[in-house]
Amino acid sequence: MKLRSIALISIAAMISCGAGSTNQESVQQDTNHSGMSKGKTLFVANCNQCHKLNEKTIGPALVGTMQRWNNDTPRVTRFIKNSAEAISLGDARAKQVYDENNQSPMPAMTHLTDNDVIELIDYINKGVE
Predict the structure, then answer these.
(1) 65-89 pLDDT, tens per residue?
(2) At what angle do helices 73-81 and 114-126 cross, to 10 degrees?
(3) What structural domains and CATH numbers belong to the chain?
(4) pLDDT digit string (tens) for 89-127?
(5) What 3 state SS string does 89-119 have?
(6) Using CA atoms in the order 114, 99, 46, 12, what is the torsion angle rounded to 10 degrees?
(7) What does the alpha-carbon distance between residue 99 and residue 78 come to, in Å, rounded to a whole number?
(8) What's the Cα-to-Cα distance from 12 to each of 7, 25, 44, 56, 94, rounded to whole Å?
(9) Would the pLDDT of 1 be above 90?
(10) I need a surface site. Which of 5, 43, 84, 101 has the fewest CB within 10 A?
(11) What's the whole-number average pLDDT of the chain?
(12) pTM over the 0.85 mark
């Protein structure tokens, strides 16, 4: 039952943040021409609706993410791609992020490749908006 609730909340969050858009790829391509780094382009297309780098909005501030996750890139990648799955697998940090953010799971970002997530992390680590 709890997993079903997480899934329903994920769907609602996805709709409100625009992550369910089928036009995601064209958004990334459209913003890429302006000279932004790939990480910033991905951030604007996928994260900017719910996150800022240096302040909490719908989701947590992202600067310092890797330190808070003990520089564990595979865990961060799993969380970004599917937070509900990370929570259901018992990841304590994923559960903590979920609890700290009104138990609102991050929409699944399964369309991102592992390399896309690395580009996002690199952009976030620079901490410049």
Answers:
(1) 999 999 999 999 999 999 999 999 9
(2) 110
(3) 2-126 (1.10.760.10)
(4) 999 999 999 999 999 989 999 999 999 999 999 999 987
(5) CCCHHHHHHHHHCCCCCCCCCCCCCHHHHHH
(6) 120
(7) 18
(8) 9, 21, 20, 20, 19
(9) no
(10) 5
(11) 81
(12) no
How far is C-alpha 55 from the geometric centre of its chain's CA atoms?
15
Structure tokens at 98: 């979920």
Q: Are 107 and 13 in contact (CB under 8 A)?
A: yes
The contacts found for 87-93 with CB under 8 angstroms, 24 or more apart, are 87/6, 88/3, 88/6, 93/68, 93/69
- Count Cβ atoms below 10 Å from residue 89 Cβ, excluding itself: 11
Nearest-CA neighbor of 123 among 38, 58, 17? 38
As a whole-number percent, the residues of the chain with pLDDT over 70 amount to 72
Q: What's the one-letter identity of residue 1?
A: M
